[in-house]
Structure to design on (604 residues):
């Protein structure tokens, strides 16, 4: 097995069993090819197939002897509705004027998400297939080099998760273009070492991120490995797996121990990357309030084309949107945006939030963390182990497929044996 | 029926949202109420912190957690406290905040306008509903309280343009009016 087989794309839609895709019943009728144009035009007026846009209206069959047979979909057929009683009058008229003989047939209910699905669908009735118009690196597969890099970063997340006796979730945010770690974090649900002083707070933020180093710090890995003996094999402390566990916690006498129920690894790593941003690019902050225009400009020129890939045209600093503002087009063609963004060819300076970055998580994130990663504009999420009860990226919910959200990341599972959590030898 | 107290607390949340607007943040604000008293407030700080998760709710929650820790409360006591708290927020909590509020076991949430794109209390997901499979106890939720006021604030913000959004790929409708 090569490395790239270990990375699975978790698609936007739950995959259907290829051979048992959901179908709906429709009334169809064979028609005289001479009338096809008129009939289809009329049907589109009086009986458009609103929810079946992926289904072709006409099926063409070549019979023996080269004769062509056309069939057309008339309308949906509802449960137990074998008669044409419920067909609207205008359609009834059409049927009688062309002397059609309707029959019931099945078409696939959902648009195909893969070529294989599409080929199966066409066995019922032809559909159209539109492969996604944008591609986030990896959806169509990883090169050997890229998958090695993915596995290496996942390995560092696993080591972080198991580095302190108790297994928790861990997060590593990476800039893949530079193969650079932006920030790392462990769950701090049960052991948040509070530090009220802002300067101290910042320092600790920065020490947990690696703004300069281009690769993993071997010293750190060494340190992680040495602490593996104390491993306990319980996952009860993994924030995203047991978000309600915190309330069971008995009080700790040590003052350094504290419980913050929401400090899951992803949240903490976002906080660290934000702190890093403020540290590395302090000027934008100071000029922001005085000079709107210049800030806008500095932001607009600082985004590399690469990092703009999945950002929609109307991105808000915060995602509390006016419910009434329906102006932004939700089905924006990302491809188009992409072409536009190619025009900005300046090298990256300051990214907008985590645009263009990847995050490695040992466990599939809960809804809180998954949505936080939408807000922070992460480009790709890699996780090793699913979260069957509260996972938001395929297990329970599938935020990567929520059309209404203003940002969509690509999600991958890195297949690791569970033993990876119990031994730290690399 | 909206009780007079509900309106008073929502008015305070709106005040918080106005503070956010003044600071060029997306204007959403909230207050947390225990036994009829406001014990914490918060407003968006996503721009200032460059951390898009710093929503009003998260800000207010952190105020409480810090304070209760200072007072030496155990986690079971903290959980009990939250189960007696109500949140008043000008916009329906997003999926992240709704999930956080459920994790904390807050008693109930009153919100202003709904959040058609990101809402976690019914609009997109329903994280306020009890779910035995995940042990989510959920929380009571009521929306539409002073929604018009909340919307006006958001509209004001977006009309003046969000200075923090990256360069738009298409011309802004309001570009000429700054």
């Amino acid at each position: 097995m090569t490395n790239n087989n270990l990375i699975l794309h978790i698609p936007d839609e739950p995959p259907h069993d290829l051979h048992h895709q959901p179908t709906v019943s429709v009334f169809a009728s064979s028609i005289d090819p001479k009338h096809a144009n008129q009939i289809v035009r009329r049907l589109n007026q009086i009986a458009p197939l609103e929810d079946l846009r992926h289904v072709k209206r006409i099926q063409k069959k070549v019979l023996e002897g080269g004769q062509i047979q056309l069939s057309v979909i008339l309308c949906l057929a509802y449960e137990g509705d074998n008669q044409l009683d419920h067909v609207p009058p205008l359609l009834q008229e059409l049927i009688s004027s062309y002397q059609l003989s309707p029959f019931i047939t099945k078409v696939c209910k959902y648009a195909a998400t893969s070529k294989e699905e599409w080929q199966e669908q066409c066995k019922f009735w032809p559909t159209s297939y539109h492969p996604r118009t944008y591609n986030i690196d990896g959806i169509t597969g990883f090169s050997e080099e890229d998958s090695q890099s993915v596995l290496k970063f996942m390995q560092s997340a696993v080591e972080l998760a198991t580095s302190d006796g108790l297994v928790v979730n861990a997060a590593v945010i990476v800039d893949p273009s530079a193969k650079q770690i932006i920030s790392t974090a462990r769950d701090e649900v049960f052991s948040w070492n509070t530090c009220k002083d802002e300067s101290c707070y910042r320092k600790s933020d920065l020490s947990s991120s690696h703004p300069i180093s281009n690769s993993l710090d071997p010293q750190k890995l060494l340190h992680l490995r040495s602490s593996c003996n104390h491993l306990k094999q319980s996952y009860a402390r993994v924030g995203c797996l047991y978000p309600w566990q915190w309330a069971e916690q008995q009080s700790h006498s040590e003052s350094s121990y504290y419980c913050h129920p929401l400090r899951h690894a992803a949240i903490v790593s976002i906080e660290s990357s934000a702190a890093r941003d403020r540290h590395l690019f302090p000027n934008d902050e100071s000029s922001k309030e005085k000079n709107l225009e210049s800030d806008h400009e500095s932001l607009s020129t600082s985004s590399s084309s690469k990092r703009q890939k999945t950002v929609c045209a109307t991105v808000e600093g915060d995602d509390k949107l006016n419910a009434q503002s329906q102006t932004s087009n939700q089905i924006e063609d990302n491809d188009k945006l992409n072409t536009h963004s190619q025009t900005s060819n300046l090298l990256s300076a300051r990214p907008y939030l985590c645009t263009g970055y990847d995050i490695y998580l040992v466990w599939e994130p809960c809804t809180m963390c998954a949505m936080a990663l939408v807000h922070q504009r992460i480009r790709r999420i890699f996780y090793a182990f699913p979260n069957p009860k509260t996972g938001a990226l395929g297990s329970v919910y599938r935020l990567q497929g929520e059309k209404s959200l203003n940002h969509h990341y690509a999600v991958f599972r890195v297949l690791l044996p569970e033993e990876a959590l119990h031994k730290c030898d690399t | 029926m909206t009780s007079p107290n509900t309106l008073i607390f929502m008015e305070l949340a709106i005040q918080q949202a106005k503070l956010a607007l003044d600071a060029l943040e997306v204007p959403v604000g909230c207050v947390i109420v225990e036994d009829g008293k406001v014990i914490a407030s918060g407003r968006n700080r996503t721009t200032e912190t460059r951390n898009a998760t710093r929503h009003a709710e998260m800000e207010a929650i952190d105020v409480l957690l810090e304070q209760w820790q200072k007072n030496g409360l155990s986690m079971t006591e903290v959980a009990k406290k939250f189960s007696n708290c109500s949140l008043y927020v000008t916009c329906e909590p997003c999926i992240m905040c709704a999930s956080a509020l459920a994790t904390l076991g807050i008693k109930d949430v009153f919100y202003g306008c709904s959040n058609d794109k990101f809402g976690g209390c019914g609009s997109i997901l329903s994280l306020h509903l009890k779910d035995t499979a995940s042990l989510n106890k959920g929380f009571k939720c009521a929306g539409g309280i002073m929604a018009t006021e909340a919307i006006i604030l958001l509209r004001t913000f977006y009309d003046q343009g969000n200075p923090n959004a990256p360069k738009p790929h298409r011309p802004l409708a309001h570009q000429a009016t700054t």
Notes: The longest strand of chain A covers residues 23-31. Residues 144-161 of chain A form the longest helix (18 residues).
